[in-house]
C-alpha cells in the first residue's frame, strides 16, 4: 500500500491563478485490496470513478497551462469528495453493487483508508491551492466530475451541470456561457445539489472564501477521446474567460446552505 500514490499533481503555471480538481479521476485500487471482492466489470462503471474526467482534466490543464490535482484511487475504496464524518465515505452498496471488501469493516481499517488515501489527497489539494495563492490573489478552483445518462431508469436530459452551494461568483457566468449554445441542456444544481457539507468544495473553497465552481459533464458525452476533445474545446475558452475576471480572484466567504461553519 505504501507504494501506491493516492494523488497526481499536474504541474502548471501557479501564477495563472487557476487550479483544476478531479476527485474521481481514476478507478485504481492498491494491490493489497485486490478488487474488493467485485468483478472487474464493476471498475468500468460510474460506481468506481467519473468516466471521462481524467482525460478531460488532462486536456484542459494542458491547454490552459494550469495545475491540476487528480485522485488516483477508486471511490469504491474511499470517496475523496465526502467529509470524514460522512456515512457514505466508504460505501457498502453502490447502485445495486454490494462491495464485499467494505462490509464488514473495522474502525482500524476505516481510519487506515482515511490516513493513507483520503487525507493525503486533500493535503495535496491544500498545497496546490496555497502555491497558486501565494501572491495573495485567490485562485479560481474548477472541480470536474461526470454523471450517468440515466438513474434508476429515468433519463437525464442535461448535457452538463454546474453544482454549487451559495458562492455564485463563478457559477453565474459559467452557466451563462454554457447556455449560449442552444443545443445544450445545462443543469443548475441538477441532477445533484452542490451544497454538501464536508465535500471537496466545502472543505477547500467555501470555508476559505475561495472562488469556485463544480462542473459535471454527462458520461456518455466524454466516454471516448473524441468526446473528451470536443468538451475540452468547448470548456477551455470558458475557463480562460472566467480566469480573466478580477472578481474571481478575491477571497470572500459566503454562508453555506448546509449550516454554520465550525459546528
UniProtKB/TrEMBL annotation:
InterPro entries: N-FG_amidohydro, UCP029730. It comes from the Bacteria. Pfam families: FGase. This is N-formylglutamate amidohydrolase.
Amino acid at each position: 500500500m505504501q507504494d501506491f500514490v493516492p494523488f497526481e499533481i499536474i504541474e502548471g503555471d501557479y501564477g495563472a491563478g487557476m487550479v483544476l480538481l478531479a476527485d474521481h479521476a481514476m478507478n485504481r485500487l492498491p494491490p493489497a485490496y485486490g478488487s474488493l471482492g467485485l468483478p472487474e466489470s464493476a471498475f468500468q462503471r460510474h460506481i468506481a470513478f467519473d468516466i471521462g474526467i481524467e482525460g478531460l482534466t488532462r486536456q484542459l490543464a494542458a491547454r490552459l497551462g494550469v495545475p491540476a490535482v487528480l485522485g488516483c484511487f477508486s471511490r469504491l475504496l474511499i470517496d475523496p469528495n465526502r467529509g470524514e464524518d460522512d456515512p457514505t465515505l466508504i460505501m457498502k452498496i453502490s447502485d445495486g453493487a454490494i462491495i464485499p471488501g467494505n462490509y464488514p469493516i473495522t474502525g482500524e481499517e476505516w481510519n487506515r483508508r482515511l490516513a493513507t488515501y483520503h487525507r493525503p489527497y486533500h493535503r495535496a489539494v491544500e498545497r496546490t491551492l496555497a502555491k497558486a495563492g501565494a501572491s495573495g490573489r485567490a485562485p479560481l478552483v474548477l472541480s470536474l466530475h461526470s454523471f450517468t445518462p440515466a438513474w434508476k431508469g429515468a433519463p437525464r436530459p442535461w448535457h452538463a451541470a454546474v453544482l454549487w452551494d451559495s458562492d455564485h461568483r463563478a457559477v453565474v457566468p459559467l452557466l451563462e456561457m454554457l447556455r449560449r449554445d442552444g443545443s445544450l441542456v445545462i443543469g443548475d444544481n441538477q441532477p445533484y445539489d452542490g451544497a454538501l457539507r464536508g465535500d471537496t468544495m466545502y472543505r477547500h473553497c467555501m470555508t476559505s472564501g475561495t472562488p469556485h465552481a463544480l462542473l459535471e459533464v454527462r458520461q456518455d458525452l466524454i466516454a471516448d477521446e473524441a468526446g473528451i476533445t470536443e468538451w475540452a474545446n468547448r470548456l477551455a475558452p470558458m475557463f480562460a474567460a472566467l480566469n480573466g475576471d478580477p472578481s474571481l480572484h478575491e477571497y470572500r466567504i459566503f454562508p453555506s446552505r448546509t449550516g454554520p461553519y465550525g459546528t
